[in-house]
């Protein structure tokens, strides 16, 4: 198909391309992101970008390949933004908490008051999967992200294990404080 430079013929050409390749384009985007609503949003962004860039389309390229390349780039942009947003929550939130005068949680106060030796003995009663993140966090001053990287676990799993470990420790630590 030959692209004419007048607006009406460009719109007709674009409409023909979308009718011909739209479904396969959407399926391709969906195969990349595996989320229907996200795929729909990205599909719309691809169509808008393609329409705006249509005057610069080089006829020697195949239009389907051109549309799919725009789709890949839109998906990469989305993943980059998503990764950046997640990085904020995984790293920067903890930095803000350390910088500000946040009131420590009661279990953190108790953990800090107990002697290190008694606490390590108490920690030995926990299963390794719960003990390891606590030791890394409180005794080796590792951040949650560092623990996640060291253990090859998602940060959400590290948080869950730390919470469960604290829940299991709470009654034992109360005994230590009462006896100490």
From TrEMBL:
Superkingdom: Bacteria
Alphabetized, the UniProt keywords read: Sigma factor, Transcription, Transcription regulation
InterPro entries in the record: RNA_pol_sigma-70-like, RNA_pol_sigma-70_dom, RNA_pol_sigma70_r2, RNA_pol_sigma70_r4_t2, RNA_pol_sigma_r2, RNA_pol_sigma_r3/r4-like, WH-like_DNA-bd_sf
Q: Name one Pfam family in it.
A: Sigma70_r2
Q: Which residues form the RNA polymerase sigma-70 region domain?
A: 19-83
- GO MF, one annotated term: sigma factor activity
Asked if the Swiss-Prot or TrEMBL record annotates the protein with the keyword Transmembrane, the reply is no
Limits of the RNA polymerase sigma factor 70 region 4 type domain: 121-169
GO biological process terms, alphabetically, are: DNA-templated transcription initiation
Annotated family: Belongs to the sigma-70 factor family. ECF subfamily.
List, alphabetically, the NCBIfam families matched.
sigma70-ECF
Know the name of this protein? Answer: RNA polymerase factor sigma C
């Amino acid at each position: 198909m030959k692209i004419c430079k007048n607006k009406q013929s460009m719109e007709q050409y674009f409409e023909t391309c979308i009718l011909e390749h739209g479904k396969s384009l959407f399926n391709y985007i969906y195969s990349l992101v595996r989320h229907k609503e996200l795929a729909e949003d990205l599909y719309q962004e691809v169509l808008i970008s393609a329409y705006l860039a249509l005057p610069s389309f080089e006829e020697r390229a195949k239009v389907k390949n051109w549309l799919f390349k725009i789709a890949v780039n839109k998906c990469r942009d989305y993943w980059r933004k998503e990764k950046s947003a997640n990085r904020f929550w995984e790293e920067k939130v903890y930095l803000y908490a350390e910088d500000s005068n946040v009131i420590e949680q009661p279990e953190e106060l108790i953990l800090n008051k107990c002697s290190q030796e008694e606490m390590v003995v108490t920690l030995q009663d926990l299963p390794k999967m719960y003990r390891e993140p606590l030791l890394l966090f409180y005794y080796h001053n590792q951040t949650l992200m560092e623990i996640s990287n060291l253990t090859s676990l998602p940060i959400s799993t590290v948080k869950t294990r730390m919470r469960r470990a604290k829940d299991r420790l709470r009654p034992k630590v109360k005994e230590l404080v009462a006896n100490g």
